[in-house]
TrEMBL record:
GO terms for molecular function: DNA-binding transcription factor activity; sequence-specific DNA binding. Keywords: DNA-binding, Transcription, Transcription regulation. It comes from Actinoplanes octamycinicus. It comes from the Bacteria. This is AraC-like DNA-binding protein. Residues 229-331 form the HTH araC/xylS-type domain.
Length: 331
């Protein structure tokens, strides 16, 4: 695995790439990137074996593209400390765990079991993979629903619906494109944190879990307006850092679920949207104060304040300020 060469203030992207006919090398890389397991292979013709793997890891988030030809890859594993989803783009197989068996085919997604042993039998094919820390998923579920962290469980490996599966597929394709195909040397810490939440949210949205039925929990506690103001002040003071909803709530002395509801009441928006709005204001201030002859670019400012690229930043900027960011910079 190699580190990228990020610019100043960027979080490095660690890469792993492998093309090999050695099946054990492929299994070793999967162990390094995704999960510890015992592997076995069936290979009718060793001359036809090819394994391909590309991955990018940043701040606890891994996106990868895997491919196998000429052999069947079977594995068994125990519980993991991460949440992982795989999307078959070609080929298929089956995964079993705790009495549940899920057939995999092209276009289908599955969640690898986190809390119990599993066995996976993959035929030749290609896969997109997403891996994120379990803590990131737990924190987001608690923030969104109030579900205590130790109560979160995923209850099945398959998606809740075809629409949810398409949502997960779109997320995997986007992030593999941004991190694996585009090969950035580094990305903004703000963007790394945002993409981690995107993956955690996609898993919670796509696969059956106890946060989906958290309606039975007591509602959020009443959060005074003064506490909301304290949270807003914390956001203003830390907008250049990859703060989470849990950190903002802790600074304000309330739980994240209650603060989310209070923000909607006081500001008509979510914590994430408010934080993004503040960062857009900071980008506007930076562009207004910048000397274009000094080397400042819209792309650099967009990256610094957490946008994936100039196009998305330009759309948000024009909607908010009524002008293009280039026009602000060149005034």
């Amino acid at each position: 695995m190699t580190d990228g060469f990020p610019g100043a203030g960027l979080t490095p992207v660690r890469r792993a790439e492998l093309v090999t006919a050695d099946m054990d090398q492929i299994a070793d890389l999967v162990r390094q990137l995704y999960l510890q397991h015992t592997a076995s292979f069936r290979c009718p013709d060793p001359a036809r074996v090819e394994g391909r793997a590309q991955s990018a890891t940043v701040a606890g988030l891994t996106a990868g593209v895997l491919g196998y030809d000429g052999f069947t890859y079977s594995l068994t594993s125990g519980p993991t400390d991460s949440a992982m989803a795989f999307l078959a783009t070609k080929g298929g197989g089956a995964v079993t765990s705790g009495g549940e068996e899920l057939a995999m085919a092209s276009g289908r997604a599955y969640l690898y079991p986190t809390e119990r042993p599993a066995a996976c039998h993959q035929l030749h094919g290609d896969w997109l993979a997403l891996r994120v820390s379990w803590d990131a998923v737990v924190d987001l579920a608690e923030e969104q629903t109030g579900l205590p962290g130790d109560a979160l469980r995923f209850e099945a490996m398959g998606p809740v619906s075809a629409d949810a599966e398409r949502f997960l597929a779109g997320t995997a394709e986007f992030l593999c494109g941004q991190l694996v195909t585009a090969r950035p040397g580094g990305i903004s810490p703000l963007l790394a944190a945002a993409w981690t939440r995107v993956v955690a949210g996609a898993l919670l949205h796509t696969f059956p879990n106890t946060a989906m039925t958290a309606y039975y929990l007591r509602g959020p506690s009443r959060v005074p307006a003064a506490t909301v103001r304290a949270a807003a002040e914390f956001i203003q003071a830390h907008a250049d850092q990859p703060v989470t909803g849990a950190q903002i709530a802790a600074a304000a002395g309330v739980d994240a679920h209650g603060l989310q509801h209070a923000f909607r009441r006081e500001h008509g928006t979510t914590l994430d949207s408010y934080l993004r709005r503040v960062r857009l204001e900071r980008a506007h201030q930076e562009l207004t104060a910048a000397d274009p002859a000094g080397g400042t670019t819209v792309a650099a400012v967009a990256t610094r304040w957490g946008w994936a690229g100039p196009a998305r930043f330009t759309d948000a900027y024009r909607e908010r300020f009524g002008v293009l960011p280039d026009d602000t910079l060149c005034r």
